[in-house]
Amino acid sequence: MVEQVFEFISNHYILVSAFVFLLVAFVINEGKLGGAAITPTNLVNLVNREGAVLVDIRDTKEYSSGHIAGAVSMPVSSIDARIGELESYKDKPVVLVCKMGQHASATGRKLKALGFENVRRLSGGMAEWTASSLPMVK
Asked: Which of 36, 42, 54, 78 has the most CB atoms lying inside 10 A of its own CB?
């Protein structure tokens, strides 16, 4: 089976190269639509220098177990109903925080569609924040 895959790749290298290129372009484009990724260190700088607003989109139980200081809890399940609470922050950077950085992209697209221009998402989510040994509020 593996030999057949390598034979296919060697016989159709142009087709495989085009597929890989399009796949990478798709992943990059999808990531940008939900907001640029930001590292935990850059997040700290953004909050301190530009007054970024942190929106924690994890469920209430996960938020209660530990969150970034100053983060607003707005679970993904209630984001549509509570989106009006963020209207006053349209002129500030909004950083979305989720568990591992996967759900923030979809929420970022919603915010961008509603006119939020400076939407970012924490790369790696709270898992990355915790791994970086940064402080959390419980």
From this structure: 54
Q: How far apart are CA 102 and CA 31, in angstroms?
A: 10
CB 122 within 8 A of CB 96: yes
98 SS3 class: coil
Cα 29 to Cα 32: distance, rounded to the nearest angstrom: 5
| CB neighbour list of residue 31: distance below 8 Å, 6 or more residues apart | 37, 105
Distance CA 72, CA 57 (A): 8
* 7 C-beta neighbours (distance < 10 Å), count: 10
Task: Put residue 104 in one of left, alpha, beta given phi > 0 → left and psi -120 to 50 → alpha.
Answer: alpha
Residue 65 has pLDDT above 90, yes or no: yes
Structure tokens at 137: 């509020």
